[in-house]
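Thread: "does anyone have the structure for this chain?"

Original post by V.I.:
We have the sequence but no experimental structure in hand. Need at least a predicted one for the grant figures.
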Amino acid sequence: MEPREKKRVLVDEQDHGLRLDVFLTRQDPAYSRSYWQKICRQGHVAVDGIPQAKPGFIVKEGQTVEIHFPRPQRMVAEPEEIALDILYEDLDLLVINKPRGMVVHPAAGHRTGTLVNALLFHCRELPLLGDKLRPGIVHRLDKDTTGLMVIAKTELAYLHLARQFKSRAIKRGYVAIVHGQPPRASGTIDLPLGRDPRDRKRIAVRQDGGGRRAVTHYKTLRSLPPYSLLSLKLETGRTHQIRVHLAYLRCPVVGDPVYGPQKSPFRDMGQLLHADTLGFYHPAIRDYMEFLQEPGAEFDHFLSGREADGRIQNTNH
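Reply from O.Q.:
Generated one for you, C-alpha cells below.
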C-alpha cells in the first residue's frame, strides 16, 4: 500500500495568531477552507507532533504543522442499465439528449447513476484515452443542464472530435431563461474566467490575469418581464461559462443554485439552460452533421406560466 502524502509547514511571524484552517488555506489555496476543516476533523493534521482536530485552533510562530493527506479513494466506472435518449448512433459515435439531474462522469459524491455508467452498459466498450473515468467523453454538460452531447465510441472518433473542440470547430448553441434583461438585446460577452480565489468550487470573471479568455454571444428571443429567453452561442468552452457570464451581466440563469439569486423561488429546480444545437464533422466520413433539440418540459412549464400572465413580448433583431 502506498504511503499517504505528507507535508510539513513552519508557522512564521506573519501567520502567528491565525486559525488553523485559515493558515492551511493560505498555504495551499487550491483547496477550499471547508476542505481543510474536514481534513482537521478527520485527524489528518498535527501541530508539533500532536494531532489537532479543531479547525479553530490558534497557531503560533515557530510551530510545525504536519498534514497527512488521506489516500484518494479509487473509483471504477461500472456499467449500469440506465435509459438514454439517443438521437443518432453509428459505429463511431452517438449523440444523446442529456436529461436534467444526470452527472456526466463518476466523481466524489456521484459514483453511480452517471452518463458514463449508462454508456458503458449501452456500448460495452468505449475509448479509454485520457481519464479512465470519462471513457468516450470529449465534452460535458453540468448536472442540471440538459441537451445535446456527442460521445466517441472509438479512439479515432475521440481524437478527431477532441481536435475539433480544441480548434473551436464545433458549433454549440444553447437557450436559457434568465432573470432580468441584458443591457442590449444582443451582444458578446468577452471576459476571462478562472477559479474564484475566495471559493475554489466556483468560477468567476478574472480580470487580474488569473483567468482564460471566454467568449459568449447572446441574443434575446423573447422578453418575459421580469425574465428573458436568450439564445447563446459559445466561442470558447470554459467551465460554467454561460452561467458565470450571464450572472456577471446581472442576468443569472433561472434556477441556478450557485450563481443565481439566493432568494429565488426557483433556486432548487436546477438551472433553465439547455444545449439545443450541436454541429461537428463526422470523424470517419468527414461530413458536417448538425443536431437540434428543443428544451424539455421544464422550459414549457415556465414559459406557459408567463404566457398566462400575458407578459411575453417578441423581440425581433
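V.I.: this helps a lot. The chain has a mean pLDDT of 88.
O.Q.: and The longest strand covers residues 215-224.
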